[in-house]
Amino acid sequence: MEVKATVKLTAKELYGFLMHNTYSTFGSYIGVLLSIGSIAGFFCMLGMPDVNPAFLVALLVIGLLFTVVQPLMLYSKAKKQVKVNEAINASLEYLISKSGIKVSQGEQSAFTTWDEIVKVTSTKNLVMLYTSRVNAYVIPKKDLKEGISELKKLIQDNCNAGYIKLWK
Questions:
Q1: What pLDDT digit, counting tens, does each position of 151-163 carry?
Q2: Which of 45, 74, 95, 166 suits a disulfide with 102, CB 3.0-4.6 Å?
């Protein structure tokens, strides 16, 4: 059984990966809670006459940091990477089999065995096969076409990653 896919990541898909990678850690949950608490504190203290305006500004900045500023920065980063990074910009050919994942781009190719995959996760639109905490093969589900069920079976049968979250 083999799954073939030709992938050319768009800024939207790369942004989805960056958002998932950034906001799926314990620290990011704390950051979002801090932001929400700061926004709530800002609005609670807004009408109080003896509150220092600098404190209100600080609450507002902290509140916007993880909920508005960081997502905008990640989107900007994704657009820039897709535009200037040749490795992301060009099409990648994936050949996924029971022996591993072969990725080709032009004359170059790399092979990763299933033992090297440390985490597998998916979102509504993406399948991510991590080789480290921050590096992953990002495969849009739309590019898998009918091979999505075969990929799921290959992952279940061959991957021993510490964390596997597959789609339904």
A1: 998 998 888 888 8
A2: 95
